[in-house]
Amino acid sequence: MEKIYHAVQLDTDKCTGCINCIKCCPTGAIRVRAGKAKILKELCIDCGECIRVCPTHAMKPIYDRLNVMDGYEHKVALLSPTIFGQIRNLDDLDYVMTAFKKIGFDDVFETSRAAELVSEATRKYMNAGNYEYPVISSACPAVVKLIQLKFPDLCSHVLPIKSPMHIAAKMAREEAINKTGLDSNKIGVFYISPCTAEVTESKNPIIDGETDIDGVIGICEVYHQLVATMEKLEKVEPIANSGLIGVSWAIDGGESAALMSSHYLSADGINNATNVLEEIEEKKFKRLHFVELRACSAGCVGGVLTVKNPFMAKARTQILRKYLPVSTNHLEKDDIPKEMLFNCELNSVEGMKLSDNLFEALAIMQKIDGIEKKLPGLDCGACGSPSCKTFAEDVALGYSNENDCVFIMRDQVQHFAKQMSLLGMNLGEGRADNIDDIKESE
Predict the structure, then answer these.
(1) Most exposed: 67, 134, 200, 406, by fewest CB within 10 Å?
(2) CA 50 to CA 29: how far, in whole Å?
(3) Which strand (E) or helix (H) includes residue 367?
(4) SS3 37
(5) Is there a contact between 100 and 131 (Cβ–Cβ < 8 Å)?
(6) Cα–Cα distances in angstroms (integers) from residue 440 to residues 426, 427, 437, in the given order
(7) Residue 341 DSSP class
(8) How many whole angstroms from its chain centre is CA 29?
(9) Where in the chain are all domains bearing CATH 3.30.70.20?
(10) Four-point Cα dihedral 299, 302, 303, 309, nearest 10
(11) How far is the C-alpha of 105 from the C-alpha of 98, rounded, in Å?
(12) Rounded distance, CA 1 to CA 353, Å?
C-alpha cells in the first residue's frame, strides 16, 4: 500500500480533546475519541487550519530543518516569493538572496521566476480555448486535494500546468549542474516554504511521482537567522531575476492579475475556496474564465510556516512591487513546454471507504441514512465528529456509538427517568393497597 505522507501531525500529549480542530477542518478529517483528537490521513489535505485554531499547539507542522542540507556539495535555496513580504522596509530582493548565501547556501533561485513562466503559459492555454469554463488554478496543493476529495466533477477544470514550485526546482537543478559540473545527486535543492501543503506536495506530488526538491524548510525556521544576517550585510550581490508578476503570486489575486483579463475570480481562505467550488459545481458562474483559490488568508503570505501577520505581509508585497520590472522571464517558444504540463489526468481521490463489497457498501449507506434521521442535524461536534452526517458514518462503520450523541443520550435519560417515575408510582400504589388490606384484617 502506498504510504501517505502528511506535514500536519498531532502531539497526543498536548491534546486536551477540545473540538476546535474538528469544527475548522474543511474535509472532516479529524475526530475526537477517548479525549484525544485523531487525524484521518486519507481525508487530510494539509491546509493547516487545525494548526491555527489549536489552543494547546497539539497540532504541529512538520518540515525539514537546516541540517537537511548536510551531505550535499552544492546547496540551492529555492525561495517562495512569500519570503519577501516577511521583511520590513525591503526595496531590493538582492538583500534577501545574498543573506541566504551567507547562512549556508551556495546559490539562490527565485520561485517567482517560474511563476512568471506559468503565468505566460496560462495565458497561452486560455487563448487556445480548449478547456471547460471556468479554469481553476493548480497552484495551491491544498485546494487541488480539496477538489479531488469533495468536488471530483471539477477535476477536469483544474489548470493542467505544474506549480511554480516544481518547475522552479527543475530549473534550479539544471542551472546548478551547468554551473558546477557536478552530478545531480551531489546537488541539493531546498524549497523555503510558507505552508504545510507544499511540504506534503514536495514529498508526495499530486501529479508526478518524481520531484527535484530534496527538502522543504519552513520560513519560520530560517527567518530570524536571515534577518540578523541581512542587518550585517556589507555587500549585496546582484542575484534577483524576477519581476512584479512573479512576486505577486505570494498574495491573493496575484496569479489572476497576470492573466491580463477581467473574467476571473480570486478567493482566499479554505472556507471561501470551498464556497466558490460549490457554486462552480452548481454552475452559478456563467461568464467566468479563470478561478484562483488559495487555502490561506491573504494568499500564500498567510501560510502556517510564515512569521508575520498575513495582511501586513500582503501590504509589504504590494509596496515592494513598485521597485520591480513587470516580468523578466519568458517562454522561449510559442508552445507551452511539455515538461510544464501534467503528465497524466487529475483524478478524484476516495475518502473513507465503506466496503470493498458493493452490496455491503449499499447496506452501510442505508444504515447511515437511518442513523442520520435520528440525529438533530445541529452539527455541534460534541460527539467528537465534525457533523451529524460524519457521526452517522462513524457509527455505521463501528468507530462510534449512538450514545456518543448528547441529544440521543438526553432522550434516553429522559425516557429512563419517565419509566422510573411510572415504576415508582406503581410501587407506591401497591404499598397503599397492602396497608389497606392489613387494616381490614385487623
Answers:
(1) 67
(2) 10
(3) helix 358-374
(4) strand
(5) no
(6) 22, 20, 5
(7) B
(8) 12
(9) 8-61
(10) 160
(11) 10
(12) 15
Task: Report mean pLDDT in 10-residue bins for the chain, 442 residues.
Answer: 77 95 95 94 95 96 96 97 96 96 97 98 91 93 97 96 96 97 97 97 85 96 97 94 96 94 92 97 91 97 97 97 94 92 90 81 91 91 93 91 89 84 71 50 48
The ranges of the chain annotated as CATH 1.10.15.40 are 358-442
Region for residue 144 given its phi and psi (left: phi exceeds 0; alpha: psi -120 to 50; beta: otherwise) = alpha
The DSSP line for 157-211 is GB--B--HHHHHHHHHHHHHHHHH---GGGEEEEEEES-HHHHHHHHS-SS-S--
C-alpha cell at 267: 478567493
CATH number of 358-442: 1.10.15.40
Upstream peptide bond of 134 is cis (omega within 30 degrees of 0): yes
Answer whether 190's CB lies under 8 Å from 216's CB: yes
Backbone torsions φ then ψ of 215, nearest 5 degrees: -175, 155
The Cα 1–Cα 3 span in angstroms is 6
The per-residue pLDDT for range 147-157, each reduced to its tens digit, is: 999 999 999 99
* Separation between Cα atoms, residue 336 and residue 169, nearest integer Å: 18
How far apart, in whole angstroms, are the C-alpha atoms of residue 173 and residue 189? 7
Cα(199)–Cα(241) distance, rounded to whole angstroms?
A: 25
Q: Supply the pTM of this predicted model.
A: 0.90
Q: Is 377 helix (H, G, I), strand (E, B) or coil?
A: coil
Quote the CA–CA distance of 161 and 136 in Å, as a whole number: 11
Q: 441: how many CB neighbours lie within 10 A of its CB?
A: 6
CA nearest 275: which of 141, 131, 142, 146?
A: 146
The closest of 301, 304, 306 to 268, measured between CA atoms, is 301
Question: What letter would DSSP give residue 4?
Answer: P
If you classify domain 8-61 with CATH, what class do you get?
alpha beta
Burial string for 11-38 (b: 16+ CB within 10 Å, else e) reads eeeebeebbbbbbbbbbbbbbbeeeebb
Question: Cell numbers 419517565 correspond to what residue?
Answer: 418
What gap in Å lies between CA 99 and CA 16, rounded to an integer?
41
- Residue holding cell 480539496? 146
